[in-house]
Amino acid sequence: MTEHDATKHDAAKNDPTKHDATKHGGTERDGAADGTGTAGAFGLPREPGDLAALRDRLAAFAAARDWQPFHTPKNLASALSVEAAELVEIFQWLTPEQSARVMADPGTADRVTDEVADVLAYLLQFCGVLGIDPLAALSAKIDRNERRFPVPGERAPEGQGSPDRHSPE
């Protein structure tokens, strides 16, 4: 950890709106607080892969600390943006080749993984506060993009798709 990272970490520890998803409900990456690896705080499952369970763990973590007043859509969107920027910062001055190899360095891999966790944590909390099902929203967006950007050689429905658009919105 650099001096800058240590300072940032120390400041974040006392900020109720800043928290690290990897530390919610127990120790980092080592299973439950009791060492069993089966349950996290409040008896909620610790298995990754169930977005609803992870969202519920995050909500329980915030509720236990009375952080809900801070978890407004505006604050969560801002925090999500900050965490995404921290992920970008890791890649800022890397060449495309270097960026493709970031996970080969354990220290950098840990930083990337932590920032991805932070981004996902705030996104899940944001979705929870607004009642958005992130998987349903993503599925609907992919459906729209498939209609807007047909496979080359296939014809898009009238008024949809554009040959000079390279990325979906």
Unreliable stretches: 1-39
In which range does the helix fraction lie? 40-55%
Distance between the termini: 36 Å
Q: What is the number of helical segments per DSSP (H or I, 4+ residues)?
A: 6
- Order of H and E elements: HHHHHH
Number of strands: 0
| Helix/sheet category | mainly alpha
Report on the structure:
By secondary structure, the chain is mainly alpha-helical. 53% of the residues lie in helices and 0% in strands. Helix 3 runs antiparallel to helix 5 (106-130). Mean pLDDT is 77; it is low at 1-39.
Which descriptors apply to this entry?
disordered N terminus, flat, 169 residues, 6 helices, mainly alpha, single chain
Offer a quick outline of the entry.
By secondary structure, this protein is mainly alpha-helical.
Question: What is the strand and helix layout of this fold?
Answer:
Blueprint: H1 3-13, H2 51-64, H3 73-91, H4 96-100, H5 106-130, H6 134-148
